[in-house]
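Fold these two proteins, one after the other.
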Amino acid sequence: LTSNMFGYDFIEGDLLSNVSEIDIFTNFLDNFYEFAFSNNICNDTLKFQNDCEYMYKIKTYDRIKQFQNTDLDKLDHINGIFVKPIINIMNKINWNKVIATAIPANFHGDLQPENIIVSKDNTVFLIDWRESFGTDLNIGDLYYDLSKLYHGLLINGTIVKEKKFSVNIENNQAKISYLSKDNLIEFNKKLELFCQNHQIEYNHVKLLGILHYVNIAEFYMKTEPEYSKFIFLLGKLLMSEYLNKLEK
């Protein structure tokens, strides 16, 4: 067996999550958009669509198996909102639209604020690049990166580390809460504006961002069980609210 190790030069700076200047964030978005479509060639549309199906649909259905039919999944109200079992919620997602909406682009793969470093001269560096998008080493879905960013702006790593979230379960109902950082709330507003300016569907970014919560809950079941419960319930709540709006 062999293993590959990747390293980065030491960069003195701040995580984007600790930066408050709006201009830095908007400049980052513009530069990332330029990168996403630089030298971008997708020669195999079917392969790209298959990769999208794997990254979004197949992986999701595989990861929710750990939660299906558990007591946690059987809770029928979260913060007063009626929620169905996770499999019912996932079955309501228009997966064909998810795949059809995807835009092939150069990708990072985990574009959350903790992977974005801002140096003293405001140069932005990205770390922890994903090695592939499905079977592709170069091309991914632009919406995947933007949804990762949305997901990291809403639930920041600091919230997890400092346990600034809560889960209370009683009488088959759950109440969850969490703190949001003011700068990241403002960044999210700019992300929405950025999407509007570039004809990108912000609501689709939001949908996939919520989907990430459902996907990552499995990874924390043993190491951070309380956070795993929280992020799973949050994903169910937000996805239920999102899908309910589509039906109105």
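Now the second one:
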Amino acid sequence: MHHWLMRYTKNKPMRLIEINGEPYLERYHILSVFGFKIWLHRFIRNDSERHLHNHPWHAISIILTGGYREIVALKGYRNWDIIDYERGNVNVIKADKTHRILQVEPNTWTLMLVSPRVRKNWFFINDDGDMEAGPNGGHDWHRTAGNRDNTYLLRRIK
């Protein structure tokens, strides 16, 4: 399935998400319907050096291949739970779910059904344990995105 997904997404609009200048996640836009988005995510690696964060939208993520380990903040952000997701599992990601990906299996792909925007920004837990606003959600990023080859080519030129 990984090879089929690579072929299927070759010319789809893609946003490369980086952490500290290194690829973390490829986000592919598949479809928009009534404000809902369908995305495919290809995880390149974990995001364990980032702070716990939440999202500007609600989503349902279905693990298509591979799997990952997620840390989720519980009430008050001082306690955590660790959850393992494998192929076929569904991860419900509410906008107030604060988490990060600790470990990623090679060739992990997820199918995301993303709700229309519920707030403007992402939020991260800072080093003091407080929530602070992160970047704008960029819900319509796909309108100006290139495909995978163009995205990586532009990254090399920079």
